[in-house]
Design brief:
With 233 residues, the chain is mainly alpha-helical. It contains eleven helices and two strands.
C-alpha cells in the first residue's frame, strides 16, 4: 500500500518517517547516495513534491546533503541532530548497537546522578508519589516488557522531580532511545529485574532528601549497567 493511502499522520510526516528509517537502516551508511526522486516516488507511491519536502526536512535534521549532479547523500551520523526525537527513534528502531549504547551510557552517567541529587532536594509530594508508583510497578513486573515500561517511568519521574524544564524536556526527547537501552539491559541481566535493589536505594535516598546518597546510588546503578555493556566507566 502506498503512503498516500495510509491513514493517520500527514503525508509529509509519513514520507519523512519512511525515508528516515531507510537512512538509519544498514542499507545506507555515511556517504551513501539515495535513489533519485523518480525511484523514491515509485517506491513510496507519492509525488515528487512530497519526496522533496521530506528530503528538505531530513536535511534540516542533519541527515542528508543534496548536491547538484552528485545526488542526495547520507551525512556522517555525528552530524545528525541526535537530540531530535525523530532521529533517535529511527536509530533505535534498528536496535541499539554497541557504539550508540556506549554514547548513551556516557550521557546518562553525566546527567542522571546529578538529576537524582537535584530530585532529592527539589521533589514535591506528587512527584515523589509518581516515583514510588513507578518503583512499585518495577517490583510487580512479571516480564521484560512490563519491567522496561516501569523502569522508563522511574527514570523519567526522577527527571520530572528535578523541577527543571530543560531536564524534563530532555527526558522526553531521549525516551525512545532510553527505552531501547533499558530493554537491552534487561535482556543482558541474569534476571530482568536484577537492578531492583539499586533502584530501591535511589528511591530511598530521594525519599529522605539525601542528595549525596541519591547521586551515589545512581552512579552505582549506572556503573552496573555500563559493566554489562563493556563500556568504559
Amino acid at each position: 500500500m502506498s503512503l498516500s493511502s495510509q491513514p493517520g499522520s500527514s503525508l509529509h510526516h509519513q514520507v519523512m518517517d519512511s525515508l528516515g528509517r531507510l537512512i538509519a537502516s544498514p542499507e545506507y551508511g555515511p556517504g551513501a547516495t539515495l535513489p533519485n526522486e523518480e525511484e523514491l516516488c515509485e517506491r513510496l507511491g507519492v509525488s515528487r513534491t512530497a519526496v522533496r519536502e521530506a528530503i528538505k526536512a531530513l536535511s534540516a535534521k542533519g541527515m542528508l546533503e543534496a548536491r547538484p549532479r552528485t545526488g542526495t547523500r547520507v551525512r556522517p551520523q555525528a552530524q545528525w541532530s541526535l537530540f531530535d526525537a525523530d532521529v533517535l527513534g529511527w536509530l533505535c528502531s534498528q536496535g541499539v548497537d554497541q557504539q550508540l549504547g556506549r554514547h548513551l551510557m556516557v550521557m546518562r552517567g553525566i546527567l542522571e546522578p546529578a538529576a537524582a541529587s537535584l530530585a532529592a532536594r527539589m521533589h514535591t509530594d506528587a512527584q515523589l508519589l509518581s516515583l514510588q508508583q513507578a518503583f512499585a510497578a518495577m517490583e510487580a513486573a512479571a516480564s521484560i516488557d512490563e519491567w522496561v515500561v516501569a523502569d522508563l517511568a522511574f527514570h523519567q519521574s526522577i527527571l520530572q522531580a528535578t523541577g527543571n524544564p530543560l531536564l524534563i524536556s530532555l527526558g522526553g526527547i531521549v525516551a525512545s532511545a532510553l527505552e531501547s537501552l533499558l530493554t537491552v539491559n534487561a535482556q543482558q541481566a541474569g534476571q530482568f529485574n536484577d537492578g531492583l535493589l539499586m533502584h530501591g536505594k535511589v528511591l530511598a535516598a530521594i525519599e529522605r532528601r539525601s542528595a549525596d546518597d541519591a547521586q551515589l546510588w545512581m552512579r552505582a546503578l549506572l556503573a552496573d549497567t555500563i559493566a554489562r555493556w563493556g563500556a568504559p566507566a
